[in-house]
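User: I'll paste a sequence; please echo it back and then give the predicted structure.

Assistant: Echoing your sequence first, then the prediction.
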Amino acid sequence: MKNLEAAKADSNVTISGMLLYAKTVDQIQPDNVYHMSGNEIAVKTLDLNKDFADIRRTLDDIAERYFAIENQKVACI
């Protein structure tokens, strides 16, 4: 993220990233958003044991939240 931020330093963009994990049997599942050094980093868990329609809805929600940002200069990795 920092390399992309440096490469786009003159374009006034905000850099965001996401770690997407498959759900495990562990009791604690990652699901949070962190702000570090001016960047937003989301950590999400996807339950692959659900039926495909539910998985698709979850992925669509993620795509809408993180990639369908209108009228803003944002670079997501």
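The chain has a mean pLDDT of 83. The chain has one domain: 2-76.
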